[in-house]
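About this split. The held-out portion is used to measure sequence recovery: a designer receives only the structure tokens and must propose an amino acid at every position. Recovery is the fraction of positions where the proposal matches the reference. Here is one held-out target exactly as it appears in the evaluation file.
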């Protein structure tokens, strides 16, 4: 058996030359499932060979080139990849491969099936038939490219920057969240009473200082000195603020939370940049940090903490009100719309909201409902598998992507299967809506289901579940019932309504025998002929 370190190093070594070598890499980062790379020249990336690697679940192109490796794997491969990049920069320069398409680089994404690969141009290649997994992946790539071009608006770029602040915090949120859930379980069972205070301290320490980490990352993201952003944000959690009065009331430590920390750090960046332009170089090392912390700190104490505190409280109150009064209806809408929100890039706006709810209440009630979108996606993929009995290429792709989908990694199924087919993407949203409605119904009845961290979904969310009574059988049963509802309704909606006559005629074929060429659409489905289009709901 290959040692884990050697295996991860081998994956990194296989990836590096296929993305243009060390000299083509400008930045390396990772989130829960993806290795995110900044590239100097997109033309140097060998998409076909990259997607053929067994460890690669798919690729996504946005502001960065993202290689989907899956949870756990990406966190282990990234340090090895960074080490190879650092070593390679001083030794070699990237050599451009012969491009497969002389017209230049464009977006490429989706899951490559076992029978071939996706054209690097992001359009359907001429050689493979559209009925193969490669044909679907190519159509998914075209959809992704179109979405990316529409998503480069100032507002959506701002949302991505906000996401970049919070995504690095997710591993700590997950670790502390699982420990908090374990501690709650031990307290409920009255086991190990001598150990539970220690577990509580371990689980709560990070959350008590999360504002500092948010301030640090915010200053880094917006081009300031990270430690100055952290220093200003630290004011929010300092116990001594209880002696300060603003807007006619005493401040409380932590008031404003992560939103206040974000605002304080952004202000610190602008103050710092203003000082850098005007303070003489000889005095910069003394004057700039002092003025940055002083000005930003005073504004934070006498303005931002109060305002951010009111906004944070309003977010918590609205989330509670929505589920108590909206119940199943609210869950139905949230679960059904989450996949389109992901497609539009607007889901990133929810990250600070999740974090605020976790900071206030100990868990976010929104994430388990939104996670039902992934359940609908899995159910839809199973229905596609059943309906396309003769298409061995697409069925192999679904078999390889389903385990990741069950664990909440949905990109391979979305861009490799449901979205290019069109209708199954819509019916997957229907499955997510019913799953969200199931969880929302129980929230209205008084059994809240929440998550102590953000990032995971699907089965991976079980260890992070929490509720009014902590992690107990009721909480687990409600979430499991929501997943089952999403699976079943996603399957049924796709099986009965996800395929038209032309779609079946084009795709329920054996690729080895040749597929029927696309014809004029007969049922309105995007894959029923001509270029694929995103569903109208996206």
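Reference sequence for scoring:
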């Amino acid at each position: 058996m290959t040692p884990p370190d050697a295996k991860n190093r081998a994956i990194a070594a296989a990836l590096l030359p296929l993305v243009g070598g060390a000299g083509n890499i400008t930045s390396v980062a990772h989130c829960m499932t993806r290795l995110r790379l900044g590239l100097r020249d997109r033309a140097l990336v060998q998409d076909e060979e990259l997607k053929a690697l067994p460890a690669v679940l798919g690729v996504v192109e946005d502001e960065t080139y993202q290689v989907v490796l899956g949870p756990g794997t990406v966190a282990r491969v990234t340090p090895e990849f960074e080490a190879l990049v650092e070593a390679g920069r001083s030794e070699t320069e990237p050599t451009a491969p012969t491009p497969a398409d002389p017209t230049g680089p464009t977006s490429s994404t989706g899951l490559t099936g076992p029978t071939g690969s996706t054209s690097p141009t992001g359009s359907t290649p001429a050689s493979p038939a559209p009925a193969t997994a490669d044909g679907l992946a190519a159509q998914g790539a075209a959809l992704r490219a179109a979405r990316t071009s529409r998503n480069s608006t100032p507002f959506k770029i701002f949302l991505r920057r906000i996401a970049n602040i919070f995504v690095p915090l997710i591993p700590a949120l997950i670790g502390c969240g699982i420990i908090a859930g374990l501690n709650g379980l031990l307290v409920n069972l009255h086991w190990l009473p001598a150990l539970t205070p220690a577990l509580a301290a371990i689980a709560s320490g990070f959350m008590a200082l999360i504002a500092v980490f948010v301030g640090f990352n915010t200053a880094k993201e917006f081009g300031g000195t990270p430690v100055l952003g952290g220093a200003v944000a630290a004011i929010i959690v300092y116990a001594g603020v209880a002696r300060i009065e603003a807007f006619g009331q005493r401040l409380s430590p932590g008031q404003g939370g992560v939103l206040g920390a974000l605002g304080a750090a952004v202000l610190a960046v602008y103050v710092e940049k203003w000082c850098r332009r005007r303070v003489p170089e000889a005095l910069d090392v003394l004057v700039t940090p002092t003025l940055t912390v002083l000005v930003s700190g005073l504004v934070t104490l006498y303005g931002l903490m109060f305002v951010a505190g009111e906004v944070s409280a309003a977010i918590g109150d609205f989330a509670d009100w929505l589920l108590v009064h909206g119940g199943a209806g609210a869950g139905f809408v949230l679960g059904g719309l989450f996949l389109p929100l992901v497609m539009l890039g607007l889901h990133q706006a929810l990250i600070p909201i999740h974090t605020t709810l976790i900071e206030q209440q100990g868990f976010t009630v929104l994430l388990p409902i939104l996670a039902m979108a992934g359940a609908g996606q899995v159910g839809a993929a199973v229905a596609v598998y059943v309906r396309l009995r003769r298409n061995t290429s697409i069925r192999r792709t679904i078999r390889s992507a389903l385990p990741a989908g069950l664990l909440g990694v949905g990109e391979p199924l979305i861009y490799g299967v449901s979205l290019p087919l069109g209708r199954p993407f819509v019916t997957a949203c229907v499955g997510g809506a019913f799953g969200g409605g199931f969880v929302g119904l129980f929230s209205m009845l008084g059994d809240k289901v929440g998550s102590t961290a953000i990032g995971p979904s699907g089965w991976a969310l079980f260890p992070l579940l929490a509720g009014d009574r902590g992690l107990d059988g009721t909480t687990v049963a409600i979430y499991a019932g929501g997943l089952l509802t999403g699976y079943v309704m996603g399957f049924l909606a796709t099986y009965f309504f996800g395929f038209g006559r032309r779609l079946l005629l084009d795709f329920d074929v054996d690729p080895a025998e040749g597929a029927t060429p696309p014809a004029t659409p007969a049922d309105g489905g995007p894959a029923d002929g001509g270029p694929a289009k995103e569903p109208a709901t996206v």
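Annotator remark: Residues 93-129, 515-538 have pLDDT under 50 and may be disordered.
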